[in-house]
Design brief:
Layout lengths: L1 E6 L3 E7 L5 E8 L5 H20 L8 E6 L3 E2 L4 E2 L13 H9 L3 E5 H12 L8 E6 L3 E7 L2 E2 L14 E5 L4 E5 L1 H4 L1 H14 L6 H9 L4 H9 L3 H25 L3 E5 L6 H16 L10 E3 L6 H12 L1
Parallel strand pairs: 1-4, 4-7, 8-13, 13-14
Antiparallel strand pairs: 1-2, 2-3, 5-6, 8-9, 9-10, 11-12
Helix pairs in contact: 3-10, 5-8, 7-8, 8-9
Length: 316
């Protein structure tokens, strides 16, 4: 049996499995950002015995640990490079700490890479290669899986689609920034609020929501778009056009057999997310590769990183 751990900015999950896409037990907790990295480590220490008890296992039944971390990691030193969400992780020797805590070999990966591995082995990319995985949520991450292995460049990561530079044009300015500044959950909200400020004379559902709540969410934008709110639909259009631009660059450079998309924003569904995204990619894709790829929803749900972390431990 292997232990898989997902460490995110808001979510902490631990699971036990054989590395075959089936979890024997799962523990899920919420991260308390104010407690920093030390608080998360304390949660892990207390969760492991609970998880083993739930699974009916002794610690000796575990053979290794895989970790999917929400940020860039260094393969050579097995350390966290940086967390953009939680203080106290930068430069931390996470794999060594887990090994010392549990007396087991540990392997560390970026969470998007690890999720992509799970989808390639057990989910929407099973049996195909290469697989390019994208998570669109609070941020945007990517993972390239070739023949069941994560591609990591020189060992500090690769496939960082969320950091592709894109241009955004408004009625009075143009700016360049990372793709996730426009197509992530917070990017969609920022665009919607920008459009509300530009079109002050337009009375619409999204404006009423903004006035009532003070701060919008991507879910608010999606719900308003389903009711044909013009600003919500324009904000989503901008996000999906930019995401399509990013995917077209991926296709031109890598020509993956299948692009698997997960994350909270993708849960907007076929009508608001996948259908318009596929249409936008089809309009701009490199023509010789137009019939080589598919864009599909992820299949493994909230446990995807845990599945991948268990598989990573089993493969190492």
């Amino acid at each position: 049996m292997f232990l898989g751990i997902e460490i995110g900015g808001t979510k902490l999950q631990l699971g036990i499995g054989r590395g075959d896409g089936i979890l024997q037990s799962l523990w899920r907790g919420r991260v308390e950002p104010e407690r920093g990295a030390a608080g998360i480590r304390a949660q892990i220490e207390s969760a492991v015995p609970l998880l083993l008890e739930q699974a009916g296992l002794e610690r000796g039944a575990l053979r290794g640990v895989g970790i999917g971390f929400g940020g860039p990691v260094d393969d050579a030193t097995r350390t966290v490079i940086k967390s953009h969400q939680i203080e106290g992780w930068d430069g931390f020797p996470l794999a060594a700490w887990i090994s010392a805590l549990l007396g087991l070999p540990a392997v560390l990966g970026n969470d998007a890479d690890v999720a992509g591995l799970a989808e390639a082995l057990f989910g929407a990319g099973k049996g195909l290669s290469p697989i390019f995985y994208v998570t669109v949520g609070t941020g945007i991450g990517g993972g390239l899986i070739i023949d069941g292995n994560i591609y990591r460049g020189v060992g500090r990561g690769a496939a960082e689609i969320g950091h592709l530079a894109v241009w955004h044009f408004t009625s009075h300015a143009a700016r360049r920034g990372p793709l996730e500044s426009l197509a992530s959950g917070w990017g969609i909200v920022a665009t919607a609020e920008e459009l509300l400020a530009e079109r002050r004379d337009l009375d619409c559902l999204l404006r009423h929501l903004h006035t009532e709540k003070g701060k919008l969410t991507a879910e608010d934008v999606a719900n308003a778009a389903r009711q044909f709110d013009p600003i919500a639909r324009d904000a989503l259009h901008i996000a999906l056009e930019e995401l399509a631009f990013g995917l077209c660059q991926v296709i031109a450079l890598l020509c993956p057999r299948r692009i698997v998309i997960g994350g909270g924003v993708s849960l907007m569904g076929e009508d608001l997310f996948f259908a318009p995204l596929r249409d936008a990619v089809a309009r701009h894709v490199f023509r010789p590769f137009a019939d080589c790829y598919e864009i599909v929803p992820a299949a493994l749900g909230e446990e995807v990183v845990v599945h991948g972390a268990v598989a990573l431990a089993q493969k190492t």
